[in-house]
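hi! just following up on the protien thing from before. the input was this:
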Amino acid sequence: EDPIKLKYSRIRLPIALRFIDIERFNILKPVDEREYDIGFVGRLEPEKGLPEFVLSMKLLYLKGYRPRVIIVGGGSLYNFAKRELNQFGVNVLSYVPHDQMPNIYNSMKILVLPSKKEGVPTVLLEALACGVIPVVSKIGGMPWVVQNAGAGIVLDNTDSVFIYRTVSYLLSLEPEKLRSISHKGRKFIEEHFSFKSALKRYSLLRKILGDETCGQH
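and the predicted 3d structure came back as:
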């Protein structure tokens, strides 16, 4: 986007200054060779879209799919997730140390983030850096990230049937196609969310907004 617009819109500042450790969060295994087909990472709460995710997974199993699914996160719906998906062998983890998250991301092909309220979650950026293919709701900055990366799908709505149809489409793709999408996401993060790229944007912001204004952000 035109950097001059940053002067007039504070909402873009958090995205402009974001970065992640792209050395730690990297592709360790080709996306089509990973253990889990689908993952959910985040707080296990209604606003994160967990109920809809759980129902969409049940639909996949009832329709004859046999995806390997992992859920990572703690919250009030932890027991709900385990109870509803236990019969399908879904792995539900309540807590994973952050230094182990690169391995978690590299164990999944698709990450579903059907949040009802969100900004630009670090989970999305870390997952893309690890070559995971995201499916996200049309909330906050997630569509901007996914559409500009050219990697993943933005949901028109977070209805469980819609999530089911979107995920089943991705599961039908050939390994070569999955790898192509995976590498697009990684390339986007390298270009836009590395520490080096954030530093360049910060220097530009200092010139546009002035040292004092940037210091306040």
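The chain has ten helices and six strands.
The longest strand covers residues 36-41.
cheers
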